Amino acid sequence: MTETGLAYRATGPAIGGDRPGDELVLLVPQAMRARRHPRAIAGVWAWETVLALLASGPTAVLARAAGHGDGPLWTAGGHALLDWLWHDIHGLRALLSGAEMVLVLAAIAGLVPMAALMAALTYARRDRRAAGFVQSLAAGSRAFPPMVLLLVLVEVLQALVVLAGGGLAFAVERWAHAGLGEARAEQVEGAVFLLFLTAASLVGVMHDLARAAVVRFRVTWIRALGLGARTLRASPVVLWWSWAWRALASVAPVLAVSAVASKIGGRGGFALGFLFALHQSVVGLRVGLRASWLARALRAVDRAGGNERRVPAIEGS
Questions:
Q1: What angle in degrees, to the nearest 10, is found between the helix axes of 89-109 and 111-122?
Q2: What is the pLDDT of residue 13?
Q3: Domain ranges of the chain
Q4: Which secondary structure element, helix H or strand E, spans residue 210, and what is its range?
Q5: pLDDT confidence band for 68 (50 / 70 / 90)
Q6: How many CB atoms lie within 10 A of CB 73?
């Protein structure tokens, strides 16, 4: 049994590598499983943790310098928090601007670790070992340019879908108000907007499928978008649900830990350490669920575009 749990069988050209055993070959779809790559998942978790510290650290430093600490966050009624925000508003504005820049840059730079994770899921070395950190990161870097173009295009498309849904829902509510009454008209408005939100989520699913095509087949962003659309069209309900249940499952622990945090309050010591451990476990769980969905997207894209392969595949044992 090897590190990836794979039986080796590959012929023909492969990707990179200074030695023959270091060359990367594709895994067959059934071998692409997130649970086989805990170190890759841990790497993405570390990336997100560092980003969270960069975004929130300066605010914590300002609160400590002002002598407030995290006390205003836990004081009942919110008056202490409002007072702190009012008196330190100028410093907070600067910090929020910095945090926004970090988050925007992270959304773009984060494409590389995500693509590296997908490369770890889809490739293995000829010597039957998992793709290493450097190899996965190199594959993620190669996928960066088409992924940036896909990100811009899909974000614009999703925004247009949501705006169109909001406008149509408002128009329907105004039209139905006289005949159905205010309550029923608002229900119809909500139903129409929910349909457009579902459509926007389908666009997001197609986006992830296109990303999978970029990593799996090393195609251009246009070709990847076509493969993503073809894959989604083949089984839209199944793929949407595969994404949706993982998305919902990633929200549940956030709500649970929020409830625990409200009970613990601003206590330090063991309670603070326990809360930190819970927070990090939620981050790790969310990354694992995301990796599980990306593996599912890679398997789906492979079936829809198997003739795009440029390197051979090795079978799972």
A1: 30
A2: 39
A3: 1-142
A4: helix 182-217
A5: low
A6: 15
